[in-house]
Amino acid sequence: MEKRTWEERQHLQRRRRRLRAGAFVVVGALVLGTAGYLLFDAFAGPELPPMAGNVIDIAADMGGFSRKELRVKAGEPVTVRLTSLDNSMHTDGGGKHQWAVDELGVSIIAPPEGSNYKTFTPGKPGTYTYYCDLCCGGRANPTMSGRLVVS
Ligand SMILES: [Cu+2]
After folding, report:
1. Strand 55-61 relative to strand 78-84: parallel, antiparallel, unpaired?
2. What is the pTM (predicted TM-score) of this model?
3. CB-proximal residues (5 Å) to ion ligand 1
4. What's the gap in Å between 110 CA and the centre of ligand 1?
5. Rounded to whole angstroms, what are the CA distances from 107 to 29, 37, 45, 132?
């Protein structure tokens, strides 16, 4: 077998280095992709079936509502779908959460790790408070409330 020239050796070395860098990028992308997918899956919560009409999705857990403000139009029917992200092992409220607006006479209670919805038509423009009265201090807890703006 004939000896490789210096140039040939350099060329081979460079190719090996490039291959190693390429493999590193591929493995890195796979790891990041998997981690990202798992993270997304963990935070996205339960999958909800699509619904017809003007649907607003909102989730609640012990940390509060996923949205602190909702905007709707007066005189137009709207469906609010509440999802509880907590399981039934929660001693406080048993994993249930509520979305209620006194002035509109609406109260939705979502079961542990489940959803419930109600369709209503807000009549008068204004800013209303929605709240959950089932967990951690109930209505008095500022994290378990938000603003419904009817315009
Ligand atoms: Cu609650």
Report:
1. parallel
2. 0.70
3. 97, 132, 135, 144
4. 9
5. 46, 35, 22, 9
Q: Is 106 left (phi over 0), alpha (psi -120 to 50) or beta?
A: beta
User: 5 alpha carbon to ligand 1 midpoint, in Å?
Assistant: 75
Task: Using the structure block, give the residue that is written with the tokens 């291959």.
Answer: 19
pLDDT digits (tens, 9 = 90+) for 78-111: 999 999 999 999 878 899 999 999 999 999 999 9
CA 150 – ligand 1 centroid, Å = 23
Distance CA 134, CA 151 (A): 28
* Ligand 1 midpoint to CA 129 (Å): 14
